[in-house]
Amino acid sequence: MSVNFEKIRWRNFLSTGNSFTEIQLNRSTTTLILGENGAGKSTILDAICFALFGKAFRNINKPQLINSINQKELIVEVEFITNKKKYIVTRGIKPNIFTIFCNGVLVNQDAASKDYQKVLEEQILKFNYKAFTQIGILGSASFTPFMQLPLAHRREVIEDILDIQIFSVMNTLLKEKLSFNKDTIRDLDSKIELQKQKAKMQKDFIKKIEDTRDKKAEEVRNEIEKTTTEIETAQKTIDLLMNDVTEKRKKTDRKDTLESKLVKVKTMQQKLDTCNVKLSTEIVFYKNNDECPTCKQSITQEYKEDIIQQKQTKYKEVEEAIKKLNKDLKKITRSIDTIDHLNDEIDELNKKIHEHNSIILASERYLTKLRKQETQPTDDIVNNLDQEKKKLKELAKEVLNLSNEKTSLKEEQEYYNICTLLLKDTGIKTKVIRQYLPIINKLVNKYLTLMDFFVHFELDEAFNEVIKSRHRDEFSYASFSEGEKQRIDLSLLFTWRTIAKMKNSVSTNILILDEIFDSSLDNNGTDFLMSLLNTLGEETNLFVISHKPDALYDKFRSVIRFEKHNNFSVVRSA
After folding, report:
1. Fewer CB within 10 Å: C terminus or N terminus of the chain?
2. Half-sphere exposure of 100 (CA within 13 A, CB side)
């Protein structure tokens, strides 16, 4: 299933005024978008992403999307066809609007906004923001290419493209079922144990009835005294256990706070790791470049050394902060483990309290019967014996029923455990990914060769990259120049689009390259990329955003120019 975009229109969006700006997305196979810096030519990226996902492509806060002059009535509409149905998605701010029309009929809006977005992504588009931006857009400074994503996020993108995220959903549902199953078994264990204790007490009670059948009244009084003592002893034991539970609970009150702190520490650790990656990239950039790739101005050695020193100092500060966070993480984890151990002890204490309460309950029942025996003939006890035995049989039957139910749940749990193994990342998904990895690697290397970049690129099952030169020297993605990285990013983008079409998953007609030709590609790289883009076919609508038209103007079938008029961005066709 492919999503074929037809039209995007917006008003009061970023630098656009109250009149609609409209772009036909399927009019031409190749379109060049021109404009000076700040003219609004990248607005199309933010408009498409906002319409589909409720957020801009670039790092722009939602309130900042509204035109600062009009400050209201922001509207963005996108039209597309998928599964032979035409959809119009509209979003707005001041007032807030979010509607989806299918063939002119409004899609049910009974659900909350978050659920309505879920319907759009999972049932209509069949892709999310992360997958869409990996196969449809490349080049913005705020965008994170596939090779710069953490390994977990790389997996998410590939799962979306291969259309196997359903296994992750199934695994989540299975975990919920498994958790419910375990809780039910735990409850059954408690019920079985309780019924066994009752049965044992009932047996003891019956035996005592039989033993006291022929005894004298004095023996009955002695038994009453003994039972009373047992109740008092059990009650004292319960009091001691309850005190112990209270003391231990005081020490476990901090668990929620510690777990919250643990999440914050891990989040901060991730942010610091990301910061160091960024700092490392910037240090490499200033070490390897003597001029700005955008404005082409030279960078002085003194300025480079100063910037590198600042970045390295900051890098060391972040490293120290990460070490401190690791120590805090270990300390918090040990504290949580201690609390978990205390909770286990509390459970054991509560079990003992429950056992002693059961003893008291049975003993009080027994005590009541003994006191009746003091005033009733012995024959009354004999007559009650059959009734007590009947109760014992009922208890035994209940224990058997509960045990059968537990056995059934245990068998069900075994099936769940097998399914868990299959649905883990190392199960079915890995087998699917393993089948496609050779194709993915072959396609990436094919596109690298077409762009005159002769290295051997390979992703392994953990989505780590191994890049080898002709001389078999190994490199990482981070070790390449910005231009070489961009060729790798482009190769991956084309690969994801090809795989998506093969899988009929995250497939779309539009491809937008934002200032790719203006940054790190040299003349040869530009020529090779244009040759590659010309092979995309009529089913792809390519948009290239650039502010350097001289070398590109005659290479595209249509041209759109963004200009500023009275402080508002407007579109001029060329």
Report:
1. C
2. 24
**Tens digits of residue pLDDT in 198-226:** 888 888 888 887 776 666 667 777 888 88
In the numeric block, the tokens 């991730």 are attached to: 270
Tokens at 363, concatenated: 């003993």
Beta strand spans in 371-468 (E): 456-459, 465-468
> Is 337 among the domain residues?
yes
If asked whether residues 471 and 563 sit together in one domain, one would say no
CA 162 to chain centroid: 17
We report the CATH number of the domain holding residue 270 as 1.10.287
Structural domain boundaries enclosing 100: 1-126+506-574
CA atoms within 13 A on the CB side of 172: 4
**The pTM is what?**
0.51
Does one domain contain both 223 and 345?
yes
Contact 160, 503 (CB under 8 A): no
The answer to whether residue 140 sits within a structural domain is no
Single-letter amino acid, residue 463: F
The whole-angstrom distance between residue 103's C-alpha and the CA centroid of its chain comes to 33
Cα dist. 310→253, 281, 288, 315, 524 in Å?
44, 14, 16, 8, 35
The dihedral sign for the CA sequence 518, 521, 522, 527:
negative
- Better-predicted residue by pLDDT, 26 or 427: 26
